[in-house]
Design a protein that fits this description.
The chain is built from 9 helices and 6 strands. The chain is mainly alpha-helical. It has a domain of 176 residues. The strands form 3 sheets. A two-stranded antiparallel sheet has the order 1-2. The protein has a two-stranded parallel ribbon with strand order 3-4. A two-stranded antiparallel sheet has the order 5-6. The protein is globular and about 55 Å long. The termini are far apart.
């Protein structure tokens, strides 16, 4: 009887010991919430570990699903956009390159007369070579508009009876036209090409573009006396004085009326040419301001729905 009783007690003790061993050797697991009826109906009652572990399976690069980029990954940054009124980096150089061709501009005084040797905001442009100086002067001197301008001047000379020995009529007009063309061409090349190439001076007019009216007026006037050299240093404008004096002498003693072939007429012609060049410098200095004024006026009219000139 005792053996049976002892056997009955040992079996529960062994089972209890086994349960304790298993309980302490197995890691504790958190209790999971019971699925609700709504989750069961929608098919979402499966525990996370019961769902297929697709993320653990290796996938080929071509079939890998697109994943969100980590937040700390460097994203390409776009350059800051300039605000209204600001110029983009390099825009000034680009505009300057568009305005210049072989060291000269495409500008025209009053939208008509060639103004190719006037530069705006171009303090650091390279000097012209000797050949470029000749080409620049030739481009302005033989511009088609110039021939029309010579015709106007010849008509004015015909009206005022300048060079009276030329007479009137078509022959007198032709002589006056040829004289004006010859005087202008010789003077342009002597002042703008021959002497600048020999003396290494820059024949271009560099606009001041800032400051008060009288300061800029004085600056333009002094450009007759002061000129920039090819070394970018200011120096005496020998090309203006020697070039215009030699041009006046050549024209006076070659094709001017014989009655005017004297030193007095040479001095008068030389002084007139220098004075005209001084006036031209004033127009070159302030013409860009006048042009911008008209452009601003046209832009304002266009913004108000008006056509330019209304």
């Amino acid at each position: 009887m005792r053996k049976k009783k002892t056997g009955k007690l040992c079996l529960p003790l062994a089972a209890g010991w086994l349960v304790l061993v298993v309980s302490f050797s197995t890691p504790a697991r958190q209790a999971e919430p019971m699925p609700t009826s709504e989750q069961t109906a929608s098919g979402n009652s499966l525990a996370p570990e019961c769902q297929p572990a697709e993320a653990d399976e290796p996938q080929s690069p071509g079939n890998a699903p697109a994943q969100a980029q980590p937040q700390n990954e460097a994203q390409p940054q776009t350059p800051p956009q300039p605000q209204q009124g600001e110029q983009k980096p390099g825009e000034t150089e680009k505009k300057q390159g568009e305005q210049l061709e072989n060291g000269i501009s495409h500008d025209r005084l009053f939208y008509l007369l060639p103004n190719f040797l006037t530069l705006e905001n171009a303090a650091n442009v390279p000097p012209l070579t000797a050949l470029e100086k000749y080409k620049a002067v030739a481009k302005g001197t033989f511009d088609p508009v110039q021939f029309g301008w010579y015709a106007v001047l010849a008509g004015y000379g015909q009206e005022t009876d300048s060079y009276a020995s030329y007479g009137q009529g078509a022959l007198g007009y032709a002589r006056r036209y040829a004289t004006i063309f010859g005087d202008t061409t010789i003077e342009n090349f002597m002042v703008g090409a021959v002497f600048p190439a020999l003396l290494r001076q820059d024949p271009r007019y560099f606009q001041m573009g800032k400051g008060g009216f009288w300061r800029r007026t004085w600056y333009a006037m002094t450009r007759i006396v002061v000129e920039r050299g090819d070394s970018r240093n200011e120096q005496w404008n020998a090309s203006e004085f020697f070039g215009s004096a030699l041009a006046a002498a050549i024209s006076t003693y070659s094709y001017h009326p014989s009655s005017q072939r004297n030193i007095s007429n040479v001095g008068s012609t030389w002084g007139t040419q220098v004075a005209l060049d001084a006036v031209a410098n004033e127009m070159k200095e302030f013409w860009p301001d006048i042009r911008r004024h008209f452009h601003k006026k046209d832009a304002t009219a266009a913004g108000n729905g008006k056509s330019p000139g209304d």
